[in-house]
């Protein structure tokens, strides 16, 4: 099956710093990847769609200047949380479509102190 | 607005029994309905996909039904095991390759 990896799996940072999260499709190419955020006991909420070679598409209410997305190649998308604040602490998950379904990364736990 | 409801937040059953989870949706006409398993602190893992023109799909101990008239899907785990304990998410999309809309999930606990 298709495999998606994320790095890092866990990150703790100070308020005001920036954090970069990588999402890679390991055995398939993905022109599109998706970034989700999940708060405790809540469902996954789509943040943005990452498009290889073009700008990302952000969901309503998601600040594009705060959550920078770069889809540098057909196997890599990055999400940078800029000037992170404690309210940005969450579980960030990426996915990539393959055939008719989506394959998810293992997630990145971000804690902003 | 589009809405997906998994009407049980938690489901507790005994080992060996069949677990049945429900997913209802409104204001949506999905082409696909998918079920995922999510363990604590992990990303969702794909289990089954059913298309709008399919009524039922099976995979080992798993069975999914899809009723587009009732706008409902049922997810069954037969002969449940403690290892089946996890959160199960229902997800919809209207086109392959597009983003998924998720329900909140049902946390299944199977006791031995």
Question: What this model shows, in words?
Answer:
- The complex is a heterodimer of chains A (113) and B (112).
- Chain A is an all-beta fold.
- In chain A, 0% of the residues lie in helices and 55% in strands.
- Chain A has no helices and 11 strands.
- Chain A has strands at residues 4-7, 10-13, 19-25, 32-38, 45-51, 57-58, 67-73, 76-81, 90-98, 101-104, 108-112.
- In chain A, a hairpin with a 6-residue loop joins strand 4 (32-38) and strand 5.
- Chain A starts with a strand and ends with a strand.
- By secondary structure, chain B is mostly beta strands.
- Chain B contains no helices and 11 strands.
- Chain B has strands at 3-5, 10-14, 19-26, 32-38, 45-51, 56-59, 62-67, 72-77, 86-93, 101-102, 106-111.
- Chains A and B meet through strand 5, strand 9 and strand 10 of A and strand 4, strand 5 and strand 10 of B.
Quick description:
The complex is a heterodimer of chains A (113) and B (112). Chain A has strands at 4-7, 10-13, 19-25, 32-38, 45-51, 57-58, 67-73, 76-81, 90-98, 101-104, 108-112. With 113 residues, chain A is an all-beta fold.
Descriptive keywords:
heterodimer; A: 113 residues; mainly beta; 11 strands; B: 112 residues; six-stranded mixed β-sheet; five-stranded antiparallel β-sheet; 0% helix; globular
Anisotropy-based shape of chain A: globular
Q: Tell me about the largest β-sheet of chain B.
A: 6 strands, mixed
Helix share, percent of chain A: under 10%
Biggest sheet record of chain A: 7 strands, mixed
- Number of E-state strands of chain B: 11
- Strand percentage of chain B, roughly? over 45%
Poorly predicted runs of chain A are none
Radius of gyration of chain A, rounded?
13 Å
Largest interface: A-B, 25 and 22 residues
Total DSSP helices of chain B: 0
By DSSP (H or I, 4+ residues per run), the number of helices of chain A equals: 0
Question: What's the count of strands of chain A?
Answer: 11
User: Span from first to last CA of chain A?
Assistant: 37 Å
> What is the averaged pLDDT score of chain B?
93
Compressed to H and E, one letter per element, the order of chain B equals EEEEEEEEEEE
Mean pLDDT of chain A: 95
Oligomer: heterodimer
**Rg over C-alpha atoms of chain B, rounded to the nearest angstrom:** 13 Å
Q: What coarse outline of chain B follows from CA principal-axis ratios? A: globular
**Strand pairing plus helix content of chain B: what structural class?**
mainly beta
């Amino acid at each position: 099956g298709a495999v998606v990896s994320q790095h890092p799996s866990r990150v703790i940072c100070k308020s005001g710093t920036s954090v970069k999260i990588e999402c890679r499709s390991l055995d398939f190419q993905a022109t599109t990847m998706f970034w989700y955020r999940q708060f405790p006991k809540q469902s996954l909420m789509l943040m943005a769609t990452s498009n290889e070679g073009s700008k990302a598409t952000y969901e309503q209410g998601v600040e594009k200047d705060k959550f920078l997305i770069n889809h540098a190649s057909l196997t890599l998308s990055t999400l940078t949380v800029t000037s992170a604040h404690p309210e940005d602490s969450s579980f960030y998950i990426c996915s990539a479509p393959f055939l008719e379904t989506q394959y998810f990364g293992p997630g990145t736990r971000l804690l902003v102190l | 607005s589009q809405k997906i409801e998994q009407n049980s937040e938690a489901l507790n059953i005994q080992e060996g029994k069949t677990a049945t989870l429900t997913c209802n949706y409104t204001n949506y006409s999905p082409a696909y309905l998918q079920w995922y398993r999510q363990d604590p602190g992990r990303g969702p893992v794909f289990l089954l996909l059913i298309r709008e023109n399919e009524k039922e799909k099976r995979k080992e101990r798993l069975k999914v039904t899809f009723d587009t008239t009732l706008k409902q899907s049922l997810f069954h785990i037969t002969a449940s095991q403690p290892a089946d304990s996890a959160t199960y998410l229902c997800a919809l999309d209207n086109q392959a390759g597009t983003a998924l809309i998720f329900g909140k999930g049902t946390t299944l606990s199977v006791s031995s």
